[in-house]
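Slide 14.
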Amino acid sequence: MNWNDIPLFLAIAESGTLAGAARKLGLNHSTIFRRLNALERTTGTRLFDRLPERYQLTPVGSALLEYAHSANACVDAFARLAAGADQELSGDVRLTTAPNLAVNYVPPALVKLKKRHPGVRVQIIVSDTDYDLSRREADLALRATSKPPDHLVGRRVVDLAWHLYASRAYLRRMGTPAAMSDLNEQDLIGADDSFGQLTVFRELHRRFDRDRFTATSNTLNTMAALARSGIGIALLPNDQIAPGLVRLFEFAPQQRSALWLLTHPDLRRVARIRAVSDALYDHIAADPKLIL
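Slide 15: predicted structure.
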């Protein structure tokens, strides 16, 4: 049996569709279909019922699910511990971060990294959702969070204040709010559930009725673009400062988040990961736009 079939089995079980598993694993639909059929031939049993709208675990598949999770965790731990002993300043590092950070902050840091350590190659995975570092979906994460996960280690790079932003055209049309109470008469841009880890967005949606939100998005870049278009007022961290946006006032100062560089404890001594982390930290911590 191929060990790579265990993550495939888990991805189908978790997503319920071949398309969802393909997105999760970065493979195409036909490859997932072919490998699942091969896995069922190898095991001699049907693992999923093919229903019209989803793939559902059979009783045998359900019984194997716990063992698959355990086996996958052991393989991931093996890979992390093996990588953790690597002191070579060369090789690949998978970095996951948000779109705005990937565009505006990561490239200058990597220019400096390339001069110091030309053998280190960085693969940048851009997403506003978290990748699982325990499963080696990424080696290093540059993330804004109010509280980093307990199972990861890392460095706090800089504190992030969150302000309300709008375009000049919007403010001419709707007036400039000076306090939180003024927002009850304004159009707001909100976040979807993928931002549930950030307390500022939970607080924003708690304070204001659903009908106050003229649009929502799952990326900060899109929220900023919506604000620039004049559709409403967006809540953004200070790394999103850009032409076309007017900063209003800070939202919930007691709930500031921070920008963190995070990795799995088993990987913190890997030389190439540490080199990428150091380059990002040195560049971003000194950026005047991010200093409160």
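Speaker note: The domain at 5-84 is CATH 1.10.10.10 (Arc Repressor Mutant, subunit A).
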